[in-house]
């Protein structure tokens, strides 16, 4: 989370970046949220950070050489970690254009390093995609301004990951923390509540009727 601004001041005339191996040191929700905060900064700096990949990726549950890993397996079971679901949400909801200042968090007791958001547009599917992350212990309100996008659908889909910071997926309980999908009513400008220990991905179509 302390590396959230790492590439903001990167010299744009220098070589582009491939972040070839990154991970928070653990498989709890708190670790996955730290990674989500970091990945919003990679999206913000997509003109410089052209590629990124999580690592280590796979490990046999009964014979690990290191921790953490993204996916654990045995001869009969596969256990996706909470980190995996965050990676899945981000990879399935990429865009081709980044928009600054579409999300502004209410000022309060939560440190800025624990809050992150991004707004991207997928021109192919005509979708505005918002990612909102709160890795702190207090609920925070976020002001959303989508007035630049013209006609928007009044209904959005939202995928949410949330829980307690120490929550993990295990072979016995592989879905302790996994995405929950819902619908959300939206307008050009609205307030969105981001509870503690929470990441969500909101998809809104533009230029289309409901």
Task: Characterise this structure.
With 210 residues, the chain is mainly beta. It has two domains: 17-91, no CATH class; 97-205, Golgi alpha-mannosidase II (Immunoglobulin-like). 12% of the residues lie in helices and 36% in strands. The chain has two helices and 14 strands. The protein has helices at 29-44, 82-91, and strands at 17-22, 49-54, 58-60, 71-73, 78-80, 97-98, 103-105, 115-122, 127-134, 140-145, 155-162, 180-185, 189-194, 198-205. Strands 6-8-9-14-11-12 form a six-stranded antiparallel sheet, with helices on one face. A three-stranded mixed sheet has the order 3-4-5. α1 (29-44) links the parallel β1 and β2 (49-54). The protein is globular. 34% of the residues are buried. The model has no long low-confidence stretch (mean pLDDT 94).
Features:
2 domains; GH; Glyco_hydro_b; Immunoglobulin-like; 210 residues; alpha-L-arabinofuranosidase activity; 12% helix; 2 helices; three-stranded mixed sheet
Which CATH architecture of the largest domain? Sandwich
Which CATH class of the largest domain?
A: Mainly Beta
Structural Rg? 17 Å
- The tally of beta strands, per DSSP, is 14
How do the helices and strands follow one another from N- to C-terminus? EHEEEEHEEEEEEEEE
Beta fraction of the residues?
Answer: 35-45%
User: For the report, how would you describe the main beta sheet?
Assistant: 6 strands, antiparallel
How many domains is the backbone divided into? Answer: 2
Distance between the termini: 38 Å
The average pLDDT score comes to 94
Pfam families: Alpha-L-AF_C
GO molecular function: alpha-L-arabinofuranosidase activity
Protein name: Alpha-L-arabinofuranosidase
Domain Alpha-L-arabinofuranosidase C-terminal: 20-198
């Amino acid at each position: 989370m302390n590396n959230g601004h790492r590439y903001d001041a990167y010299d744009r005339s220098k070589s582009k970046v491939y972040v070839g191996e990154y991970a928070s040191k653990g498989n709890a929700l708190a670790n996955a949220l730290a990674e989500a905060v970091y990945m919003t900064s990679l999206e913000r700096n997509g003109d410089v950070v052209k590629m990124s990949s999580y690592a280590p990726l796979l490990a046999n549950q009964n014979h690990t050489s290191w921790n953490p890993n993204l996916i654990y397996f045995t001869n009969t079971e596969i256990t996706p970690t909470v980190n995996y679901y965050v990676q899945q949400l981000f990879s399935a909801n990429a865009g081709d254009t980044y928009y600054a200042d579409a999300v502004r968090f209410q000022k309060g007791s939560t440190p800025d390093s624990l809050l992150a958001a991004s707004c991207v547009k997928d021109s192919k599917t005509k979708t505005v995609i918002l990612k909102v992350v709160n890795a702190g212990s207090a609920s925070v309100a976020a002001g959303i301004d989508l007035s630049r996008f013209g006609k928007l659908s009044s209904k959005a889909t939202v995928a949410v990951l949330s829980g307690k910071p120490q929550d993990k997926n295990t072979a016995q309980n592989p879905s302790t923390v996994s995405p929950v999908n819902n619908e959300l009513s939206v307008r050009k400008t609205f307030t969105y509540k981001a509870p503690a220990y929470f990441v969500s991905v909101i998809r809104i179509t533009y230029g289309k009727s409901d």
